[in-house]
């Protein structure tokens, strides 16, 4: 291939500017120069494939473990500027949505691109609310779990099980079917989560109450005991709704990537959402809020904070709830959450761990180790304290993240399905293993490791 002939033609805008939207790459092995088109400040990895020394070669790839600098899709859903600490859903600032919107309204925005009109919101709320019940057989699976089973394990399994109840969900290119699975997933997530919680307590399941709001009904299914009608505390109901808004989407994070990757095999959305929930379970992702509380309890008192920070700086553990792959500034969600924490503590009483958290933050924000690495509190640093104060056990924290993130997962899954450029996700590798070798009979083998 002659790279000179490959030069893209200049557009009229480029001619006017006197520059070209291309990147010239010179391969010093051959002296050849290649001109690669730049779109949205990005080059296409496949354009590197033409770069080779020998025409028989596979061609050049880019190596990017953990996708540190690789865009795997185009998206119109969430925008993050990690250096400026900005998060927007469909162009709307997270601060505005947290102040003025509800979770269901935000979920609609994330899924369908615009805030709903009053009529659209009414229909949307009706449909989600009328899909909150789960098949009675799911209660039987839950009964099979040990009393101390982690609720995330129960949640992952029961989301996957939903696919067996709704075989129509396999019809993924049917818009009507996708809409229905969306109502089902968003409607049933709080029910599965609450039932998992009640199972761990050995308490009877509390059924959905269609008269309550989305977060209000969730609180009802979690905490209702003998009262005929559960009435959620409005401050806690609103706090939970705002926390749900803050967690609704966050572009290409680990669990969203799992949703897109698994969904790219064209499996049904319940199976893909189970995979996304499994990804969220890990302590480096949605499991971090649980780890923050464990860390604060381990620190034990404000006086022990400097010693703990010293250990972190020596590499003996991490300051959980700090740092983020994208935010290199204060996570804007953490700022809003700090404010909600005050409101919740006013109703429920202050968490004894709050002082320890504040002291960790104070020291870390001044300490050269954290400052130079741009480590700031992330969304998980204060959520655990709020959830604990609201009466949730630590094991429920990642579950409280999975419920609202479902709207983001479905929106991202649908965007992937309808994107004509997307195919089954299939990364490349750089093989560094053995060259071809002769098969060894067992008696000639030497142990490779003890
Ligand atoms: N405490 C102490 N040091 C840290 C922390 C931390 N929380 N986070 C990062 N560092 C250090 C690393 O050791 C590394 O130091 P080095 O350059 O001397 O080797 C440097 O900061 C860069 O860190 P990386 O691990 O390269 O950053 P990466 O982008 O890969 O990781 C992550 C981001 C996973 C969030 C990381 O900061 C972390 O583990 N934080 C704690 C877990 C956590 O709070 N996760 C929740 C994330 S938010 C979410 O998922 C919703």
Element layout with pairings:
Layout lengths: L11 H6 L4 E6 L4 E6 L40 E4 L4 E4 L2 E2 H7 L2 H10 L5 H12 L6 H9 L6 H15 L9 H27 L12 H10 L10 H13 L7 H10 L5 H13 L6 H12 L5 H9 L18 H17 L5 H13 L1 H5 L7 H10 L7 H22 L32
Antiparallel strand pairs: 1-2, 3-4, 4-5
Helix pairs in contact: 2-9, 3-9, 3-18, 4-7, 6-7, 6-11, 7-8, 7-18, 8-9, 9-14, 9-18, 10-11, 10-18, 11-18, 12-17, 14-17
The structure holds acetyl coenzyme *A.
The site of acetyl coenzyme *A has 17 residues, from loops.
Structure notes:
The protein is globular and about 80 Å long. The chain is 49% helix and 5% strand. The strands form 2 sheets. It has a 3-stranded antiparallel sheet. Strands 1-2 form a two-stranded antiparallel ribbon. Helix 3 (103-112) packs parallel to helix 18 and helix 7 (175-201) packs parallel to helix 8 (214-223). The protein contains 18 helices and 5 strands. The structure holds acetyl coenzyme *A (ACO). The site of acetyl coenzyme *A (ACO) has 17 residues, from loops.
Q: H/E order of the elements?
A: HEEEEEHHHHHHHHHHHHHHHHH
What ligand molecules are bound, each kind once?
A: acetyl coenzyme *A
Main beta sheet, described? 3 strands, antiparallel
Shape: globular
Mean pLDDT: 94
Tally of DSSP β-strands:
5
In brief:
The protein has 450 residues and is mainly alpha-helical. 49% of the residues lie in helices and 5% in strands.
Brief descriptors of the model:
450 residues, 5 strands, 18 helices, three-stranded antiparallel beta sheet, disordered N terminus, mainly alpha, two-stranded antiparallel ribbon, binds acetyl coenzyme *A
